[in-house]
Amino acid sequence: MIKGFVIFLCGVLIGGIVVWKGLVFGQPKVTASADSKVDVAKLGSDVERLNNITPNLSHVMADVSFQFANLWYAGQKKNWPLAMFYYNETRGRIRWMLRINPNPKTPQGDVVNLQGIFDGIDTSSLASLKEAIEKKNSSDFDGAYKQMLESCYACHKSAGRPYLRPMVPTSPPQTILNYDPEAKWPS
User: Fold this and answer.
1) Using CA atoms, how far apart are residues 17 and 14, in angstroms rounded to an integer?
2) Which phi-psi region, left, alpha or beta, contains residue 26 (left: φ > 0; alpha: ψ -120 to 50)?
3) Integer distance in angstroms from the first to the last C-alpha of the chain?
4) pTM summary value
5) Residue 184, exposed/middle/buried by CB under 10 A (0-12, 13-18, 19+)?
6) CATH number of the domain at 55-103+115-158, please?
């Protein structure tokens, strides 16, 4: 008990010294010099260039679709390390989409909070899918995968695109990969 109190007291003292040094010495002040002018025209052209090279959401979602379809086939073959790889790739692509535009507009012009939608999906459908992969449970995987497709469709409807209906894939999008976890070639 005394040892814990001594550690706590040391922490308080170190914290106090840090705060005191900040108050006495202050933070360095950043000032703009007379020759540091912002080139508004260049800034505008840089923003326009970035807008022109940033992929649109349909490009990113095509990538999500590719990763998610591969996830299905990896799970069907019970190749759980490959399934986890594609799970992470799918989730990463969705997060990329959110960095590009977390609040797109519907075709009618309404703003959609995709970040909020994803936060809900990430802690429910995606979490269930990850758990099924970690448990290596095929029946849970099938159900969680289909539940995730329903979550995807709910998001599509929220974004004003109910015509984008995901489904369980019928053929592998990646024909060069062997989904068989027991594959012997190439070695």
Assistant:
1) 5
2) left
3) 58
4) 0.74
5) exposed
6) 1.20.120
pLDDT of residue 109: 95
| For range 108-127, the mean pLDDT | 97
| Cα–Cα dist 87/74, whole Å | 10
The long-range contacts involving 140-145, CB below 8 angstroms and separated by at least 24 positions, are: 141/75, 141/83, 142/75, 145/71, 145/72, 145/75
| Cα 53 to chain centroid, rounded | 20
Core vs surface per residue 170-180: b (16+ CB within 10 A) or e: eebeeeeeebe
DSSP 3-state of 111: strand
In the predicted model, what is the mean pLDDT of the chain?
A: 86
Q: Give the gyration radius of the chain's Cα atoms.
A: 25
